[in-house]
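Sample intake sheet
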Amino acid sequence: MDVIYRRVDDDFLDPLVFRPDSTLGQAGLLSVYRAGNLALCNAIGTGVADDKSIYPYVPDMVKFYLGEVAILNNVPTYMCRKEDDLK
C-alpha cells in the first residue's frame, strides 16, 4: 500500500470530491483512498492537530482522547507566554 503525507488543505485534495474549480490536488485520489489502496498519514479533517501552534498541546490531546501517554517525544516547542519556556 502507498502512503501519502499531504500538504494540501482538505478542500483542495481532490477536485472531483471537494472543489471542482481547483487545479490543486489530484482528481480521483479519494476514490483510491476509499478503495483501501492508499493511506493518508494525516487523514482528512486532522489539519487542526497538524498546525505548528498546536504542538505544545499534543501530549495533552493524546492523554485526553486516548487515555494514554504518547510513546513518541513531541517536537520541542516553546510557548513564550510561559515563564518556564523563556529560560
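Comment: The CA atoms of residues 62 and 68 lie 6 Å apart. DSSP finds two helices and two strands in the chain.
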